[in-house]
Design goal:
Elements lengths: L7 H10 L2 E7 L6 H10 L9 H7 L5 H11 L6 H17 L2 E8 L2 H4 L5 H19 L2 E9 L4 H11 L8 E5 L11 H9 L3 E6 L5 H11 L3 E4 L7 H9 L3 E4 L1 H6 L11 H6 L3 E4 L4 H4 L3 H12 L3 H13 L5 H14 L1
Helix pairs in contact: 1-15, 5-7, 16-17
Bound molecules: hypoxanthine and zinc ion.
Length: about 350
């Protein structure tokens, strides 16, 4: 099979058939405007939009905070266990259609508990949908509970307490929301407790924040993976360390474009990351808000950077090697990629 593609369609077809894992997906960020209207009606929640078109038109952001403001507002339509189920199964159907075989899903419990929704309601709806998705689509999953970094560490500790009865269904903890001004150091103690409980550790770092935040995520939180990590490239010693430790980065090209982390996908750092030996992966982050699911992210960045078959195969392989699957499952998925390629 030749390494270069003859057309964008040729590349899109190759991407569509490639087995993939998604490692950076906020389930609340997969809330499509149509479902937002359905749930607003079902739960008698007022939303400040008259139509699906108006919602989509509001999705123009100049930075992370612009997006977060509308993201927290959007999740206000989620009230019942069934709502969280419907949200999650809709995402799994979309992922499966993109030939995603394994997903590691973030959820933001504090975005719900602070509105009076019980932790139990959230986790029961999400996990029931993940079980349904396994049976229906053969898609496997891990669940990662994120702490909102604009809130206090005490609030994160209370959230970890609320999660204790459900640790059988929670595989890891993460750190998301407004990055600048809320460094990983703020959460050192709660992450140490999560680690002691046997949970995997991830953190958003280097999306808008400086390389020092990536260092803190490694040194203080002792992360197993870095979410985004783009700004690591400003620090050559950090790049060497990430490569040396085979640290996975969950990169999100369309998110980076929509949140103005990059001006243009042609200037996206993904190829530089691969060339530096970093374990980069492609993910959708908040697909409803940023304009595309996993395959759309692969297509957009691959077209912009003219990625080869070998590079796309590396990215798909990285998505499994960087996952929290066991070794036997990783080997099985990697063999499926090799058979396809
Ligand atoms: N960054 C930080 N917090 C988030 C994001 C993101 O891209 N998406 C949802 N919460
Ligand atoms: Zn994210």
């Amino acid at each position: 099979m030749p390494d270069a593609f003859t057309s964008s369609e040729d590349r899109a077809a190759f991407i569509a058939g490639l087995p993939k894992a998604e490692l950076h997906l906020h389930i609340e960020g997969s809330l499509e405007p149509e479902l937002m209207f359905t749930l607003a009606r079902r739960n008698h929640v007022a939303i400040p939009f008259a139509s699906v078109e108006e919602v989509r038109a509001a999705y123009a952001f100049s930075n992370l905070q612009d997006f977060l403001d509308i993201y927290y507002q959007g999740m206000g339509v989620l009230h019942t266990e069934q709502d969280f189920h419907d949200l999650t199964i809709a995402y799994c159907a979309r992922a499966s259609a993109d030939n995603v075989r394994h997903v590691e899903i973030f959820f933001d419990p504090q975005g719900h508990t602070e509105r009076g929704i019980a932790f139990e309601t959230v986790i029961r709806g999400i996990t029931r949908a993940l079980d349904d998705a396994s049976a229906r689509y053969g898609i496997s999953s891990k669940l990662i509970m994120c702490f909102l970094r604009h809130l206090s560490e005490a609030d994160a500790e209370a959230t970890l307490d609320a999660a204790l009865p459900y640790l059988g269904r929670i595989d890891g903890v993460g750190l998301d929301s407004s990055e600048v001004g809320h460094p990983p150091a703020k959460f050192e103690r709660v992450f140490a407790r999560a680690r002691a409980l046997g949970l995997k550790i991830v953190a958003h770092a280097g999306e808008e924040g400086p390389p020092a935040y990536v260092h803190e995520a490694l040194d203080l939180l002792k992360v197993d993976r870095i979410d985004h990590g783009n700004r690591s490239l400003e620090d050559p010693a950090l790049v060497a360390r990430l490569a040396g430790e085979a640290m996975c980065l969950t990169v999100c090209p369309l998110s980076n474009l929509k949140l103005c982390v990059v001006d243009d996908l042609a200037a996206h750092p993904l190829r530089t990351m691969l060339d530096a030996g970093l374990i980069a992966t492609i993910n959708s982050d908040d697909p409803s808000y940023f304009g595309g699911y996993v395959n759309a992210n692969y297509r957009a960045v691959a077209d912009a950077l003219d990625l080869s078959r070998a590079e796309l195969v590396t990215l798909a392989r990285n998505s499994f090697t960087g996952s929290f699957l066991g070794e036997a499952d990783k080997v099985r998925h990697l063999a499926a990629i090799d058979a396809y390629a």
